[in-house]
Amino acid sequence: MKSGITATFDESVRPQDDLFGYVNNVWVKESKIPEDRARYGSFDRLREEAESSVRAIVEDAAASVSPKGSPSRKVGDLYASFMDTAKIEALGAAPLAADLRSIRAVLELSSLVKEMGRLTRLGVPCAVAPYVTADAKDTEQYIVYVEQEGLGLPNESYYREDKYAEIRDQYVAHIERMLSLAGVRDAAELAPQVMEVDTRIASAHWNVVATRDAVKTYNKFEFAALSDLAPHFDWTAWAHGLNAPHGGLDHVVVREPSFLQGLSDALRDLPMASWKAWLSWRLVSAQAPYLHAALVDESFDFNGRVLSGTPQLKERWKRGVELVEGALGEAAGELYVAQHFPPRAKERMAELVANLVEAYRRDFQTLEWMSAETRARALDKLAKFTPKIGYPDKWRDYGTLEIDADDLVGNVERAARFEMTRELAKVGEPIDRTEWLITPQTVNAYYHPMMNEIVFPAAILQPPFFDVDADDAVNYGGIGAVIGHEIGHGFDDQGSRYDGDGTLTDWWTQEDRERFDERAKALVAQFDALEPADAPGHSVNGGLTVGENIGDLGGLTIGHMAFQIASQQHPSPVLDGFTGEQRFFLGWAQVWCGKAREAEAVRLLAIDPHAPMDCRANVARNLREYHEAFDVEAGDGMYLSPQEQVRIF
Q: Which residue ranges does the record assign to the Peptidase M13 N-terminal domain (predicted)?
């Protein structure tokens, strides 16, 4: 039996002082972040493997003589259109000409807003982002949600905080160069106007903590009432530009109502010329990756080098694979699964999931802070969980999507239109509970609160997360804790606001909510005090990361309980000199092996709801089981007194 340990331990560090350092420091010291990446670690290594596997698939498809219109042919033709650099260079910025003319022809606000809708349909992020999902208060119905977007910098804080002043200056210069390379006249005059619109939009944006609030971001409006909320945003014109189906926008959930009010005021106050410059910028910025090398390089110089500190643009084949993944992900995924996902991996995962659910069930029955009333509802929700493992039961139909090997930008726009049409067509139809929101070749996992489901794609079910041939200890510390993390999202500070049917409702007693919030606040304070290794002098935002931190803490706690359940039938021996209990935590830490460039680490602190990797690994210090496994004592770096340990589940 394999131990499942993949790490080389740093013997100069004690696990009692720093679990992340003990498990990962050798790799951190000896490994270099690839020149085309801003951070690198366990997730990224698996992503590279999946990327290479998909590359082989799309290159085979591009070289094949599959029937025209078949999924394989579409995958191959899309990839071929991206790799045809001679044609792309010959075209220059010409593929933008028609859309830029359309923007220049705008004369009044309703036409401007209609143009925003049209460009949104083509995949250009404008001020308002529509998406379709189950209505959080009526989960048998699809509904359109709208949320804020439209910023060229990572989030609203970049427009107001002094520490980003230099980046703001570089951003304006970048806008000018991009517009000039796209053939837009008077770029030097237009760039400050674009920044003015950006800044005004940013002033109305909700911050990253506020947008996490499931209750405050659920605001249902009838379509007619949107005009009262944002009178200068012509909703009918936007719907026409979006080509929304009749009745598709009869009801809309607005995530940030005050943003729409601010956007409406900005449309009233700022000159039309500035808005047209801004819309031209949104188009150029969105389509730059599919145009000639000068635009590609300038786009990367700012978004890669300046914002994230990434030295080098990814090789073209990698960017081609990304395009295929975004436009035809499940078509490529069906081919990927056939080659790379053994059936017995799915069987072993089903076992793990069953033990994790059972561990949560036992935990809920004994939680001292949870009342009988809330416990009954929590157990009901747990019983209704749906796990999805490996790949979807039903593959997406791309039959109406037209792909032309000689028309890259056209392919990108048609793919965006196809996806928008597919999404909007859901409204009024029964909920499709077979749908996946990520592809099988994605190295990630998620919990969907309205569907009450956890999803684990094939590509994440590999070492160090999961090894079908390894002993239970490391598998439960790795993928087991990740499963526990995703289930835990159903009961974190936001997921706990949805009941077993996915409905947004307050099903906790007031006393239980207060006791839960008290523990969550303690976790916020704990993470607020942390300074990640990759961003010295900067602190974690405990409020932004609290949901994921609850997920990590709960996942690790319940993963350990599930490991104990599994060990009753299959005791874990001492392997590689470590007990099963120790290897469980070592397995957890090796999942979070990784490092980031300092610029990227700082950027992620502002926008990422996940804590830095070293902080995630060391959340184990809250578990008494960790203290017992490694004999952690007062004075050790990982030591927390029982009173300081946060234990929610």
A: 15-392
